[in-house]
Structure formats: structure tokens, C-alpha cells
Design a protein that fits this description.
about 375 residues, alpha/beta, 7-stranded mixed sheet, 14 strands
Length: about 375
């Protein structure tokens, strides 16, 4: 049944793309490259990269924290995935890969199941934790959301395994990469553009980041987050981003946001990472500006991409949440492979809506 619906949607899906009023970031493309138009953003250069990776190590300014000997728990109980196919749920596969089920649609965000996030599987950042759920153990995927073209978010081997069965949504320019791999079942969107998929409405949202799969082709494709509006829940996936004014604007346009998946890792050293990677205190601030119900941290605990210890981000997140006076139960720090139902959140939202309607009738 799902295959029939997907075929129907894919035939007419281009007809459903719309653009919201574009007043927040009027220009982010100069005709050749994309850029971050946000106040205070300062682009890091290739020279800055060399300073961090080479010079700071040679001069002893860069502390090297090894990626071995981390005992991350991998949850093996995935029975919830095989229960009611229409019940909303979320599972953390690892890094920025989430499995979401909303309105019966099976979704993957930035899927990477490879051993390394690199153009070569012999070198490059190596996975320190296996995928929490094997790709072959997941239900058939209907929709894939790509945030940008970096190797830890757009993995060729995984995309080839998925093939053209799912439908792909990607930021502007990323479709050319997909097409070069034989993927034709996709649509590219720009910031604030919207698209319908089955019962879902999906919005391509701004992010503060950069793109490029080699040093010579930087910012030729766009980077983005994604907002998914279902009949019962609104889920925001931020992709990869620094802290920027967009969170308040996303809330203003699309509130209420019930679940926010925000990146919390690869943030040290701050002088280098701050423009493009939030640290946990900034992620808490973004969560508050979104006014979301639940925070799900992503972009941590899987690949060694920066200088902080691999297991540090969730601890800093908890401290930041406590300092901000936020209830700890709103922060779902999932284990690799952990599956959680979203039904209770949906029921809470429905009950609140009924209460508001009842009060309105009494008036």
C-alpha cells in the first residue's frame, strides 16, 4: 500500500512545492556560491583549518583526545519498530541519523551506515560505535532528508544501498550529487520552501553552516534543516548548524514545535568551530527559542570530528539544561539504537487542544 501512495505522490510532487514569504534571509546566493547572511557570521578559511589541524598540534596548543575506549551502550531491543505501523516514534541510529515514523511514513535523516565518513573507506574518521540499528533491520524507508553534502551527512555507500525506493529531499544543488550516483527520485528545495508528502508538510529551513566535498568546491550547494509537520506532531531536525537567529524565526513561522533534534557535538576548539557547530549551551538556547517540547541531541558520540572527548557533549547538555531551569525529562539523550514512542507527546497535544476548544465554547 505504501508503495502505491509513494508512486502517486512522486508523480505529482513537483506540483506541491510552494515558497513562503521570504523576508528573513533575502539573499544567500551570489550567483556562484551560497553564503551565510546572518549578522556576526565570520567564515573560517583553509588557513584556519591548517592552523587547527597542524600548527596547534605542533605547538602543543591542541590537546589530542583519542577516540578509543568509549563504552557507549547500543540498545538491542527494537520491538517497538515492528508494532503499530502508524504509531509515531523516533530511533537514534547514531551521529545525525534518526529514524522517524510520522503518520505512517518512515523517514531517515542524513543516513550514514558506513564505517567511515570519508571519500575513502580506508582512511578518514572511523565509526567508534556501530549503527544502533542495521539498515537492513529498519522498516522500508519512504523518505530521506539530506541537510548538506558533507561526508558525515551525505554518505554515498548508504545512498546506493537505499537506491531509488525512497523519495529524497535535499537542499539546492545537492541533487546533482544524487543524480551522479543514479538517484533520480528527489526534489531540491531552497530555504523556506515547502512540499507535501502523503499527509506530511515538510519545510526546508535555514541553517548556519557550509558545504563542499573537497577543498576546491566550497559552498556550491546549500545547507539546511527540515521541519516536518504531521497531523499530530511537528518535528524539527536542524541538520548541522552554528547558533544563529533562525531558530526564533522558525518558531515564529511554524510553531508549535513539539520535538527538536539539535546538534550538540564537534564544538571544540570554539575559535574554529563556533560559526558552524553549536556547543551544548548554545543548543539549549536554540531549544528555548524554538519553544519545543522535547530535545533530542544528535551529531555526537559516533565519529571523532573535533577536540572534545566523545562522551562529553551529553554531560555538558545536562548541566546547561539544569542552569536554564529546564525539566530534565524534556531532554531525551538517546542511546545508540534506542527507540522511543512519540504517542504520549501526541496525546498530550491532542488533550491540550481539546481543553482549549472547550474553554472557547464556554466563553
Amino acid at each position: 500500500m505504501m508503495k502505491i501512495r509513494l508512486k502517486t505522490i512522486s508523480m505529482g510532487i513537483l506540483m506541491m512545492v510552494t515558497a513562503a514569504n521570504f523576508s528573513f534571509s533575502q539573499t544567500h546566493y551570489d550567483g556562484q556560491k551560497y553564503f551565510n547572511p546572518f549578522p556576526g557570521f565570520k567564515k573560517r578559511t583553509f588557513g584556519d583549518l591548517l592552523k587547527w589541524m597542524v600548527w596547534d598540534r605542533l605547538t602543543g596548543k591542541r590537546a589530542i583526545v583519542r577516540s578509543q575506549n568509549h563504552n557507549f551502550e547500543v540498545v538491542k531491543d527494537h520491538r517497538l519498530l515492528k508494532q503499530n505501523a502508524n504509531e509515531p516514534l523516533v530511533a537514534w541510529i547514531g551521529h545525525s541519523t534518526l529514524f522517524l515514523r510520522l503518520d505512517g511514513v518512515n523517514i531517515l535523516t542524513d543516513p550514514i551506515f558506513s564505517e567511515r565518513c570519508s571519500p575513502f573507506q580506508a582512511v578518514g574518521p572511523k565509526r567508534i560505535v556501530p549503527p544502533g540499528i542495521a539498515l537492513d533491520s529498519l522498516p522500508e524507508i519512504d523518505l530521506v532528508l539530506i541537510s548538506h553534502d558533507h561526508y558525515d551527512h551525505l554518505d554515498k555507500n548508504t545512498i546506493l544501498r537505499l537506491g531509488n525506493k525512497p523519495f529524497y529531499l535535499a537542499p539546492a544543488g545537492v541533487g546533482e550529487i544524487l543524480r551522479s550516483w543514479g538517484i533520480t527520485n528527489f526534489v531540491e528545495l531552497d530555504w523556506w520552501e515547502e512540499i507535501g508528502f502523503n499527509q506530511l508538510k515538510i519545510v526546508c529551513t535555514p541553517a548556519q553552516h557550509f558545504s563542499g566535498r573537497n577543498p576546491f568546491q566550497q559552498n556550491q550547494t546549500l545547507w539546511a534543516g527540515w521541519l516536518i509537520q504531521s497531523r499530530t506532531l511537528n518535528v524539527y531536525y536542524a541538520g548541522d548548524t552554528g547558533y544563529f537567529p533562525g531558530f526564533a524565526e522558525i518558531k515564529r513561522r511554524y510553531a508549535p514545535i513539539h520535538v527538536a533534534a539539535l546538534p550538540i557535538g564537534a564544538y571544540q576548539p570554539r575559535w574554529f568551530m563556533k560559526p558552524v557547530h553549536m556547543d551544548p549551551p548554545e543548543a539549549v538556547k536554540a531549544f528555548q527559542e524554538l519553544e519545543a517540547e522535547v530535545f533530542i541531541p544528535v551529531h555526537w558520540g559516533t565519529f571523532k570530528l573535533a577536540d572534545e572527548p566523545m562522551d562529553e557533549p551529553p554531560g555538558v547538555l545536562k548541566e546547561s539544561a539544569e542552569k536554564s531551569g529546564l525539566q530534565p525529562e524534556r531532554f531525551w539523550i538517546l542511546k545508540h539504537g534506542e527507540v522511543r514512542g512519540l504517542k504520549k507527546i501526541a496525546q498530550k497535544i491532542e488533550a491540550a487542544g481539546q481543553e482549549r476548544a472547550s474553554l472557547t465554547q464556554k466563553r
